[in-house]
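Raw record, unedited: Uroporphyrinogen-III synthase-like
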Amino acid sequence: MKVLLLKEPRDSGDEADPYMKELASCGHTAALIPALSFRSVSLNELSERLFEPERFGGLIFSSPRAVEAVKSCLDSQRHRHSESGSADAHSLCSGFCFVVDE
């Protein structure tokens, strides 16, 4: 049976997508079609708040995209500090950090 798999492909290098692998093991042919697109909408506000950790008691990552957004802010901050020659002195996890997954 031919199956349409509507999801973002996994970024796991050479390893096959687990859904594609499972469907193939059952004799199905799957076509993977990325159906959604995600973009961060408030990176400036997130960045401002990340670098004021004393204002918050913790940080909760509720999805992989939340982690990607924080990483983007940290990469941007690191880039700015390397250009200016100043040290990166933030203490992001001075409180609690939690990761929530299904």
